Amino acid sequence: MRDGDVACEALKMTCLEYAAVVLEQSLARWDKKIPAWGELHQAKFKHPVLTKTPFAFFSDRKLPLGGDRSTVNVGWYDPNDFSLLHGASYRQVVDLADMEKSRYIHPMGQSGHLLSPQYDNLLVRWQKGDYLAMQMKDYPRAESLVLEPIVSKINLGQDFSRWSK
């Protein structure tokens, strides 16, 4: 870019001058009252049934969210109005060396039931980028499934033709 860009040269300005013009044009739409990013860029959670009813006031949630398409906390947005189009929902960090250090978070809550206290109890934590510890040790379970590689059960000299059908 030190030698300039063909597109900018065609406009008879440097890339920095062009960037300044575009920035001024972008900011002009707010008439010097530039809103905070979170006022424009919000995560919206719409109830699958109630969102198109008067009950949407009780069921739907929205909150400011950082990020864009090139940040760790991805939040793609519509360039016309900056409304969030899609981003990360369930997030998980797994420590394979020590599973007890693994973490997760899910937006909204543990329940899809509108009247449950767990309907949206994780939303603010999700917004802040907090995580919950994954309980791995001594977690009660009804049954376990152990996956073993099939190669360990096969005599490598066997005929594999029955599996290729």
TrEMBL record:
EC number(s) stated in the UniProt entry for this protein: 3.5.1.-
GO molecular function: hydrolase activity
Hydrolase among keywords: yes
Enzymatic class: hydrolase
Assembly and binders: Heterodimer of an alpha subunit and a beta subunit processed from the same precursor.
PANTHER family in UniProt: ACYL-HOMOSERINE LACTONE ACYLASE QUIP, PEPTIDASE S45 PENICILLIN AMIDASE
Protein known as: Peptidase S45 penicillin amidase
Source species: Candidatus Thiomargarita nelsonii
